[in-house]
Amino acid sequence: MIQEKIRKVWERIEKAANRVCRKKDEITLVAVTKGVPTEKIAEAVRYGIQEIGESKVQESQDKFQTLHASFPRLKWHMIGNLQRNKVNRAVEIFDCIQSVNSERLVEAINRRAEQIEKVQSCLVEVKVSEEPSKLGFTPDALEKMLDFSSRLKNVRIEGLMALAPYFQEPEKTRPYFEKAKKLFDRFFSRRSQPVLSMGISSDFEIAIEEGSNMVRIGTAIFGERVLNAPLLRKVER
Ligand SMILES: *Cc1c(COP(=O)(O)O)cnc(C)c1O
What we know:
This protein is α/β, with parallel strands linked by helices. It has helices at residues 2-19, 38-46, 57-70, 87-93, 103-115, 139-150, 174-188, 204-209, 219-222, and strands at residues 28-32, 51-54, 75-78, 96-100, 120-126, 155-162, 195-198, 214-217. The protein has an eight-stranded parallel sheet. The site of pyridoxal-5'-phosphate has 16 residues, from strand 8 and helix 9.
């Protein structure tokens, strides 16, 4: 079941990439495992998933204790809003913190990373829509943030993360992804292997067409989430 869903997702990734003359190998698939039990995650990993995304530190910590021994090379991404009192644990667990949405947060991440002698990979979350529920830096605030972060020795900003609003019609997400891609090109085009994380189950094909090189997919792999994992976007337009 999961195996078939993963295969289908890769097939859709490949088709979307090919439409814009890109290759599926350029795209990283992060399986979003919030609300998914560890046995199911292990199954997905056995079927080829190499990177997972979680949105809560406590939940990740419990899963990490179970999964890390069996799958030491599995990459962990923090994709949910990170509270500052959870930063210490987050820096210990996550290979990449994608949801950097304030200077105080990146400072706290840097401090902890220094303590444990790690250079923490991060993405900066950009706010490309007007929705009040969305976090992240506005395009205007981004430059100052990147400047600020570049002075922190134990944090490496690898790229950007963005979320489009939810639409019944995925095509409508395109302008938001386009906006994120423009910012990405402006600030990251001279870096080696920069990351543009955008696209979820409902819109990842559009995101790839607009230049995403990392998609975060939950529902299309694991099915609808039942409890304990609110989707960020409930408002239907
Ligand atoms: C839950 C979540 C996803 C995955 O959403 P699906 O619709 O299940 O694919 C991706 N990104 C973020 C930030 C999320 O919170």
